């Protein structure tokens, strides 16, 4: 590398990116292009926020110096930052192949695989990494721990975080990771003993206390969690602490305290906190209040991409497609590689009939996130609205929506006795007074923690009994390599999530899909008599209707009438929701997601 390029690189490493760019402009005007200069330009462009330009320069450097593992590593990192996780994984695979003894490339590969939703591949790669070249690196164990948690392998995650700490990883981050993993395994009773063994300074670290507060919430103690989150909020007035406290107050049934917290933040006028407050209101369907809160901000804040994106989301919820489109475009223009911003824009485009633009955007992001069920859901909606016959291939209700009776398992001779035992356990697990944020249920509550690690014999028997219906479903839908659902059918599977929902009178699930799933479900533990025996659709699960108002009507097309002990299986990309149950009734379910292995 020439002396001039070394000087430019020194400015880059000192984070003086503007000066580095100025010197690079002068250098490139007087010198022929080399792999070094092209790659350095790519690094500078990325730090200046020009992701597309950075990727172009990095590709150019690799054309000039094919197979350079350092260039591949930086290129892969830039691809991941741009949301192109599948391409990032390919680049890191190539770098790792060139330098198998350098674990940093395999660490990147694990991160990219997790980001793309291929948790099985991420877990296998992480296991190989920590069993080989990364065995002595704390960073490798941390990457592995995060991959294990994403794959639902919380015991392995806890052990990996502990190993990372032994190897010199950041103590607070590693301990917080262990706490999160133990809480997800229903082992919160071990946390006090674990914390008692730690130094006082580490026990009091914000990361550790935040993890302990989350664990308290997950263990079904929202009231205790409120106090912990309040302490954190008083120590560190961050947007994360604010949101955690707001959710804890809402789920604990402390509506007045929730409103007071929102009002206190609104009065300060800080755009970042007002945005979170508005989102909290949006989560509980107070859309008019959310809009009013945002519209109180100064004009400069209202023009920011983040606020524009949030306004678009709220406007979509109240059916204002044209208004939402204006704000969604502002947000996407600022963050064109962000999947969430793209999703926001696609919804507005489908609401306003801008199908050609929606098609281009959906195709682009489907290629980046091939396993993401959300992009398949939007693709299907577009095909339905435009009369494309491929819609019926995705939404083939006769083939892909199937119902089965739950069999017995272990100590339960039949499905009826197992369901009765499961009902008693689940009723004890429902301790929240309000539903957590980012959930589809309305006028109902959800168990705060997944049931996959629940120690109850009835829950364990239920999870085992599900193996039969799921296996039958996979056999019946078959394997077609050209179909987005069945091409992943290996016959092997695992549950990636399981929870319980209790709806009260008038309760329902709004239309939604499961973005990280493959096969999703509804299992009915207890169902109102009027739903089982009636000839109307109250309480029935419905399919096909999007969560937003489309330019042309797209009502539900298929219903399944529930009854206790019924397992309904369907593709995770399929829009589904619940017709409201009658007043004075309750409905108890234990749905789950399945992913292939």
From TrEMBL:
SUPFAM superfamilies: TPR-like (SSF48452). It comes from the Bacteria. InterPro entries: CHP02466, TPR-like_helical_dom_sf. Pfam families: 2OG-FeII_Oxy_5, TPR_16. This is Tetratricopeptide repeat-containing 2OG-Fe(II) oxygenase.
């Amino acid at each position: 590398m020439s002396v001039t390029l070394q000087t430019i690189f020194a400015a880059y490493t000192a984070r003086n990116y503007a000066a580095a760019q100025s010197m690079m402009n002068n250098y490139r005007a007087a010198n022929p292009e080399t792999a070094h200069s092209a790659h350095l330009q790519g690094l500078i462009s990325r730090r200046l926020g020009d992701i597309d330009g950075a990727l172009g320069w990095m590709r150019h450097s690799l054309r000039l110096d094919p197979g350079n593992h350092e260039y591949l590593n930086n290129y892969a990192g830039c691809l991941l930052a741009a949301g192109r996780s599948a391409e990032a994984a390919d680049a890191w695979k190539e770098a790792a192949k060139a330098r198998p003894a350098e674990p940093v490339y395999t660490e990147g590969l694990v991160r990219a695989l997790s980001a793309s939703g291929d948790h099985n591949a991420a877990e296998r790669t992480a296991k190989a990494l920590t069993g080989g070249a990364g065995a002595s690196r704390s960073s490798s164990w941390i990457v592995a721990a995060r991959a294990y948690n994403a794959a639902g392998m919380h015991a392995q995650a806890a052990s990996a975080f502990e190993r990372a700490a032994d190897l010199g990883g950041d103590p607070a981050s590693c301990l917080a990771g262990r706490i999160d993993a133990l809480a997800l395994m229903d082992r919160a009773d071990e946390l006090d003993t674990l914390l008692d063994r730690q130094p006082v300074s580490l026990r009091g670290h914000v990361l550790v206390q935040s993890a302990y507060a989350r664990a308290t919430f997950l263990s079904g103690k929202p009231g205790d969690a409120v106090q912990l989150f309040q302490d954190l909020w008083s120590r560190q007035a961050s947007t994360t602490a604010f949101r955690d406290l707001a959710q804890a107050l809402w789920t604990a049934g402390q509506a007045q305290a929730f409103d007071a917290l929102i009002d206190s933040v609104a009065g300060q006028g800080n755009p970042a906190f007002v945005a979170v407050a508005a989102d909290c209101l949006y989560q509980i369907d107070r859309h008019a209040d959310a809009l009013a809160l945002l519209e109180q901000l100064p004009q400069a804040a209202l023009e920011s991409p983040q606020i524009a994106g949030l306004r678009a989301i709220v406007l979509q919820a109240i059916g204002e497609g044209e208004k939402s489109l204006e704000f969604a475009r502002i947000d996407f223009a600022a963050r064109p590689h962000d999947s969430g911003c793209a999703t926001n824009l696609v919804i507005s485009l489908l609401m306003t009939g801008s199908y050609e633009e929606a098609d281009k955007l959906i195709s682009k992001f489907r290629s980046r996130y091939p396993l993401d069920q959300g992009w398949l859901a939007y693709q299907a909606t577009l095909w339905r609205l435009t009369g494309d016959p491929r819609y019926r291939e995705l939404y083939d209700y006769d083939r892909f929506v199937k119902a089965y009776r739950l069999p017995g398992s272990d100590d339960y001779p039949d499905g009826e006795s197992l369901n009765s035992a499961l009902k008693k356990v689940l009723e004890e697990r429902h301790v929240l007074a309000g539903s957590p944020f980012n959930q589809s249920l309305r006028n109902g509550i959800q168990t705060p923690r997944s049931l996959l690690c629940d120690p109850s014999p009835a829950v364990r028997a239920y999870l085992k009994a599900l193996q039969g219906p799921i296996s039958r479903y996979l056999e019946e839908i078959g394997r077609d390599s050209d179909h987005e659902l069945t091409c992943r059918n290996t016959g092997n599977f695992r549950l990636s999530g399981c929870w319980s929902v209790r709806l009260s009178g008038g309760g329902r699930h709004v239309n939604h899909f499961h973005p990280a799933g493959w096969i999703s479900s509804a299992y009915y533990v207890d169902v109102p008599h009027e739903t089982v025996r009636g000839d109307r659709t109250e309480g029935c699960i419905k399919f096909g209707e999007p969560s937003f108002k489309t330019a042309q009507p797209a009502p539900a097309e298929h219903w399944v009438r529930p009854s206790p002990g019924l397992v309904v299986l369907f593709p995770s990309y399929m829009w589904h929701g619940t017709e409201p149950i009658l007043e004075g009734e309750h409905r108890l379910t234990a749905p789950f997601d399945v992913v292939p292995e």
